[in-house]
Amino acid sequence: MTSEGWGTPPVEPISQHYIVCGGNALAHRLVLELVEHYEVPVVVLVADRTRDHAPQIEQIAGVAAVVEYPNLTGEALRAVSIDTARGLALVEGSDQDNIHAALSAQGHNPDIRIVFRMFNQRLGENIERLLRNGAALSGSATAAPAFAAAALGRPNSVEIDGRYLHIAFDDAITPDRICVVADHIDRQDLSKIRLLPEQEGDSAEFVRLAREFGDDGPVRPGGVRHDPAPEPGLRRVPGREPEPEPEPVTETVTQTEPLAEAETETEPVTGPGTEQPPGGIAALQALRMEPREPISWARRLRWRVLDTMRFLTSARLRVVLLIALAAVLMAFAVLWYLNRDFGWTVYISLLDLAGAAQPDQQADIAAGTGTGGIWQRVAQVVITICGITFAPVATAIAVEVLGSGRRGLPRHPSAGTRDHVIVVGLGNAGTRVATQLHEMGVPVVCMERDPQARGIAAVRALGIPVVLGDGPFEEQLKRARLKHSRAVIALSGDDATNLEAALEARHGNPEVRVVVRLFDDDFAGHFYKTLDNAASRSVSYLAAPAFAAALMGSEVRGTLSVFRHVLLIAELTVEDGSGLIGLNRHDLEDPGGVRVIAARFARSNQLHWGFADRTRRLAPGDRIVVAATRSGLARLNTALVEEG
Question: How far apart are CA 168 and CA 523, in angstroms?
Fold first, then answer.
């Protein structure tokens, strides 16, 4: 229920609540996280109840109050009972506004937990030091890896202690996987996906082995037996998650080696970027280093040559220059043949090109002391005349490069741009995604309709080409060289605009991969059913669980995408008085939604991956790394703050 009347304090006195300041998509998702998964009282402070997502936030059951104030002032904070609140989330406004509000909130309530959104992460880290209990997060930085990886057709990763965790699908799953994170995957109906499916008890494997090797087991004469699998495509090992089944064989001899070390192979099915059959699975795996997108030196050289040719906009002029270049090369070959001195030939050719060569004098010719005869003179004349053609073109190129740099204009994509990713929209998310792709070595071209967008200066500093203008998407995509691109990422703040850009991109290049930022889940479902080689992500959906967890005091190291669903990788510390004290892996995992993938105990700083002791109980100072759903992490966070 919401309060009666906007712009007024809550009707009923409230305490021990959480305050969300903002009415954007991230605020909307964050309120849902807090109300549905953490079940805490939430008060929302918005600037205008009629704009953005404020009307939808008002309709969320469980919101204690919605208060409207045009500015985030001390009066507004007092109106939402900042003195008795447990946490404050600042997810809208500029970095400067959020810093001011965070410091003001700490002045009213020194013990309050403050989580604020900051685009400038380095500045956010410095502000954290000024707060007693605060955390600075960037929603765009949290979501950017998922968008970049989706454009490249590979899963994003989260770095934990030198390992890069990622999600693998079906035939990409290897025997050294950490755990199964999803099953029942059907790309045409994403609601069928089960995240972190329930595990069988540890005794199930021993019962199966007893039946297999007991009196009624399928042991054949001669000590040879069939090796049935507990379920198609998977097998179970005590203390481990299901592992891929080995290659089918008719008969198997009993082995004494551990099953965990046997070579395995999964059934071949399609990956996440193509059609997924019902019943597919996804697993969490680790890499020693994050894969990059290598680009050969030959391709880079070809791009550089074509970049230079871009300045020669006239096709007729290109033909003239190519003919002149061929003539120079032929004349150079003649000079080299006549003189047999490569260094002298280069020297005299360059002088001729610059118009500074010393021709033979008549006295030298009469005395028979000329340097090369008639053919050398012809060659020098050809080179000199061609030099007259090259000089103005080189001057024009130099003037254009220097002039565009001094004007501070973004560089346009050149004719040499190939195999690149087009990023549509240079807001916070678009800027982060373009920067990350650039750091991975992937060519990027950006499109932006607003010439004042904050991301233009950031990508221009990296030398990324930008197409500016508010014309039709068809024309803008052509200028961005859509025909030669590998993917298009639509990252504006409007679902309809993003869908329009994706459809225009697919119309202009049927083979291009499209990744679309969509807030509405139903909209995204129709999108998946309609387009192949496509993916959708939501910045708020990816970022909101991290903000909610940070508001509760836990550290989310990153998010992993399973299509439209989110898996959180978090590191939790067991402190004195925490409800996690005395729990073991059975207690943490049996309720569902949580997998303990690593543990770091108080007596040692070493991280133990796949810690097999499911009975060891947690003690103060221990740290655990978990893969969790939103509800699973909410359950752990609730236990984390409980008094022992």
Answer: 25
pLDDT in tens, 563-599: 878 888 998 888 888 888 999 888 888 888 899 999 9
CA distance 434 to 539: 15
Tokens 């998650």 belong to residue: 241
Burial class (CB in 10 A: 0-12, 13-18, 19+), 321: middle
Listed in sequence order, the residues at least 6 apart from 602 whose beta carbon sits closer than 8 Å to its beta carbon are 619, 620, 621, 622
Residue 116, classed as helix, strand or coil, is: strand
Cβ partners under 8 Å of residue 222, min gap 6 = none
Count Cα neighbours of 85 within 13 Å in the Cβ-side half-sphere: 30
Q: Are 90 and 111 in contact (CB under 8 A)?
A: no
C-alpha 361 chain-centroid distance: 70
Contact 119, 428 (CB under 8 A): yes
Alpha helices in 535-629 (DSSP H): 539-551, 585-589
Q: What is the DSSP string of 46-109?
A: ES-TTSTTHHHHHT-TTEEEEEE-SS--HHHHHHTTGGG-SEEEE-SS-HHHHHHHHHHHHHH-
C-alpha 22/C-alpha 51 separation (Å) is 11
> What is the pTM for the complete model shown?
0.68
Cα separation, 547 vs 33, whole angstroms: 9
Q: Work out the pLDDT band at 601, boundaries 50, 70, 90.
A: confident
102, 114 Cβ separation under 8 angstroms: yes
Assess contact for 20 and 45: CB atoms under 8 A: yes
Which residue in 348, 356, 347 sits closest to 379, CA to CA? 348
pLDDT for residue 395 is more than 80: no
Least confident of 82-96, 378-392, 456-470: 378-392
Alpha-carbon Rg for the chain, nearest whole angstrom, is: 32
Q: What is the DSSP string of 219-260?
A: EEGGGEE----SBTTEE--TTS--EEPPPP-S-EE---S-GG
pLDDT tens by residue, 503-517: 999 999 999 999 999
> In degrees to the nearest 10, what's the CA dihedral of 53, 59, 61, 65?
80
